[in-house]
Specification:
The structure is a single chain. The chain is of the alpha/beta class. It folds into 2 domains: about 110 residues, Nitrogenase molybdenum iron protein domain (Rossmann fold); about 140 residues, Nitrogenase molybdenum iron protein domain (Rossmann fold, 3-Layer(aba) Sandwich), CATH 3.40.50.1980. It contains 12 helices and 11 strands. The protein is globular. A 7-stranded mixed β-sheet has the order 1-2-11-10-7-8-9. The protein has a 4-stranded parallel β-sheet with strand order 4-3-5-6, covered by helices on one side. This is ABC transporter substrate-binding protein. It is found in: Cell envelope. InterPro entries: ABC_transptr_periplasmic_BD (IPR002491), Bact_iron-sidero_bind (IPR051313). Keywords: Signal, Transport. It holds the Pfam family Peripla_BP_2.
Length: about 325
């Protein structure tokens, strides 16, 4: 599960978050507002008695500060990607403003990457001449599965990023965009921060379970899942029966393998209703972590259906907020 997974939905928050449409006194719109005029968020904060770790996450802060090109290398002004998964690396390098087009279907850009990348034109997998001319790509970043799309951008340099794990892919994007030094520095900083977080929070003493709910199934995420990898970098332990790389389908015989000191649950696309039914079931509530109210909800798109340094930072932020202080969320 360590490969980048393509995105088809906006994740947990998009599935369960909504804004009230009540009219505020003296306001010309239909948004509920505070006395000073600021809008009041009415985000869902709990699902089936399980609190969400970060329901009001500010996606405008996902991307980094801009990085500079390597010494002696020219900068790249205009970037096109043919696979939205590559945008995580561009975002983490802080140069999302240079992306002029995404050669993918509308809605394919993950929500967590923020509004600027959400607003980049999605020109389809077979862009027409007008869209190509408007994009004016200096470089086209592609993957083996989408390399054929790069042919439409004749004259632009094209670099294929091979599947090799999220850190290797980030380095490859950094090199392609003349930022190999910045990419190495950012990865070192992330690993140092993750290790310091693990030490500060005594992560090695926590056995954390990762459970994903599908439309009619539940799965324990393996150590090779994106979230599993980040927990490993932090130093968080997994329950003994979850220490394998592949996902573990949950059934009647191994149901209690989902238990742990703390359980992070998430909902795959279409999995919300089934997940709620399991979370409210007697069998689930009889396990240790649910009994002690140590079950928390996280965004499936960020924790599993994405991968990259920008997403890794968000997972780390969720762990900082909840690993030891989860009782404060109740």
């Amino acid at each position: 599960m360590h490969r980048i997974v393509r995105h088809t939905g906006a994740g947990l928050l998009a599935a369960v978050t909504g804004m009230a449409v009540l009219s505020a006194c003296g306001s010309s719109d239909t948004v509920l507002r505070k006395p000073d005029g600021q809008p009041i968020s009415t985000s869902t904060t709990r699902i089936a008695a399980v609190n969400l770790v970060n329901p009001d996450r500010d996606f405008t802060k996902t991307c980094s500060a801009p990085t500079a090109p390597d010494a002696g290398r020219s900068d790249i002004a205009r970037i096109v990607v043919t696979d939205p998964a590559l945008l995580d690396a561009v975002c983490a390098l802080g140069i999302e403003a240079k992306v002029t087009a995404v050669a993918a279907a509308p809605g394919a850009v993950p929500a967590y990457l923020g509004p600027q990348l959400q607003q980049v034109p999605a020109i389809g997998t077979a862009p027409d001449a007008a869209a190509v001319a408007t994009a004016k790509a200096d470089i086209v970043l592609t993957t083996p599965a989408t390399a054929h799309t790069a042919a439409a951008f004749a004259g632009a340099a094209a670099t294929t990023i091979d599947p090799a794990g999220w850190e290797a892919e980030f380095r490859a994007v950094g090199t392609a965009l003349h930022r190999s030094g910045a990419a190495e520095r950012l990865l070192r900083e992330f690993r140092a921060e993750a290790a310091a977080t693990g030490k500060r929070m005594d992560a090695a003493q926590s056995q954390v379970s990762l459970v994903r709910f599908g439309p009619d199934s539940e799965t324990i995420a393996g150590t090779d899942s994106f979230a599993g990898q980040i927990l490993g970098i932090v130093g968080v332990q997994r329950p003994e029966r979850q220490r394998q790389s592949a996902p573990i389908p949950v059934n009647q015989e191994n149901f209690t393998s989902a238990d742990g000191d703390l359980i992070y649950v998430s909902f795959e696309p279409g999995g919300l209703d089934h997940g709620k039914s399991v979370l409210l079931s007697d069998r689930w509530l009889d396990m240790g972590a649910p009994t002690w109210k140590r079950v928390l909800g996280v965004d499936d798109e960020i924790w599993y259906r994405s991968s990259g340094l920008a997403a890794a930072r968000l997972v780390l932020g969720d762990l900082k907020k909840s690993l030891n202080g989860n009782s404060a969320l109740y």
